[in-house]
Amino acid sequence: MAPFTPIIAHVDMDAFFAAVEIRNNPRLKGKPVMVGGGIGPRGVVSTCSYEARKYGVRSGMSVSKAHRLCPQGIFISTGLSGYVYASACLHNIFEKYSPIVEPCSVDEAFLDITGTERLKGGPVELVMAMKDEIWERMHLSCSVGIAPSKYLAKMASGLNKPNGLTVMDQDKFREVFYPKPVDSLWGVGESTKKSLAARGIYTVGQLAETNPAFLKKIFGVNGYGLSAMSRGIDDSPVHRYPEMPHDKSMSHETTHSEDIQDPSEIKGTILWLSDKVARRMRKSGYIGKTVSVKIRAADFTTITRSETLERMTNRCDVIFQHALRLVPKEFGMKVKVRLLGVRMSHLHKIGRGIEDEDDFTVVGGGQGQLEMIEDTVGAHVDRLTWAVDSIRDKYGEHSIRLAGTLRS
Amino acid sequence: MYQEMEDPIDVVVLFQGNKMKPARFRWKNRVYKISEVTGDWKTDVGAYRIRHFAVVDASSNFFQLSYDERKTSWMISKIWVE
Prior knowledge:
The structure holds 2 protein chains of 2 kinds. By secondary structure, chain A is α+β, with helices and mostly antiparallel strands. Chain A folds into 3 domains: 1-168, Alpha-Beta Plaits (2-Layer Sandwich), CATH 3.30.70.270; 174-230, 5' to 3' exonuclease, C-terminal subdomain (DNA polymerase, domain 1, Orthogonal Bundle), CATH 1.10.150.20; 249-405, DNA polymerase, Y-family, little finger domain (Dna Ligase, domain 1), CATH 3.30.1490.100. Chain A is built from 14 helices and 14 strands. Chain A has helices spanning 16-24, 50-53, 63-69, 80-97, 123-138, 150-157, 170-177, 190-197, 204-209, 212-219, 222-230, 263-284, 316-326, 376-395, and strands at residues 8-13, 33-36, 45-48, 74-77, 101-105, 108-112, 142-147, 165-167, 249-260, 286-297, 302-313, 337-345, 348-349, 360-361. In chain A, the strands form 3 sheets. In chain A, strands 9, 10, 11, 12, 13 and 14 form a 6-stranded mixed sheet that branches. In chain A, strands 5-6-1-7-8 form a 5-stranded mixed sheet. In chain A, α4 packs antiparallel against α5. The N and C termini of chain A lie far apart (65 Å). By secondary structure, chain B is mostly beta strands. Chain B has one domain. In chain B, strands 1-2-3-4-5-6 form a 6-stranded antiparallel β-barrel. Chains A and B meet through α1, α4 and α14 of A and β3 and β4 of B.
């Protein structure tokens, strides 16, 4: 690579959740292991070992389908705390090899290794040393892409899994990806693929040759991004964690073990989800303006409804009231419900970028700021929420819960 | 498959450097010698912490042990049964 060209590494842990489980329990080695959020038939496979993939099992597949494809598979319920801890340990290793590390999920990160590659003689040598250290300290393998941009590095890391190392530049990107279908690009999903196919665009190469202005007409401003992606162009920098752009939304959703048709159970679930979202926002120091609900019926029909609030908030009671109103009346009465979700978006970090303080209602905003809450009920709820947060901070999230979320 | 439980156990622990490492434990009047700690992690429960250890004995039997810092007590939380 030419001098001063950025050198970015994208590290992608191989079948991370399954690999942690297999490392912890050697009896699982060589077996088709699937890890999911719920091991009942309604659960979804989060990740699976490479042995399971031989049977056609994939991430995001329902547990019932995975079971049909691989009846001898071993299903393990997600042990998230162990994975998050392993992820933090990995991050510490990454920081030995680059001062600029951007985590993009629990098992992936970008490292800007421009300059630091000289520590080991070159980028490949540096990454090999890092892979060795990850294996020696954590007994986990990863696949790494090295490229002049984040996008190319991400595309490269997926090419030689597991335990791969791929160096990619623009020429190699064209050679490898131009013949491939458009959905081999990171960020291109089924609906974009269908839209492009309807216009005779099937491969990355065809997409790259398409006029960006034409793509803009179809996809809006995202059309330009799509065009750049297809040509492997990306100049976005690697952000250190504290400098990363703010979260755009926070959400929680749950799939019921059985479809529900009881309005009080829907109400209790919406309250529970609102509480989780609000608590997470308060812990992270966010307030938000748009409440959304997601409802999936028993027949998999999925709808979302949103409402923008007059005042930004991170209070459970406010989020709950609006979220509940957004659930159409027929759900729980005539229509059985499979999944419910609550999301808050248009988030702002407290203390940053809010000019008019009358525009928000916030718990835990600091001494003096609570005076902005004019109504007595609001102030009461605010004090109560602060007390509940304090109890949870000390004794854990499950130490206290809203009565409305208890089932009779 | 895994079998989950919350059985109290007695544990002999080695402190190596700044790490704690369970060496053997007594469960249901039987002593198990730990041949390898295959994984360890922590969970925060409010202001307190629980340390978890994935361990195997000489026969490659798997156990998950947990140490509750608040209660200063150990328990066996998971075993693997064929």
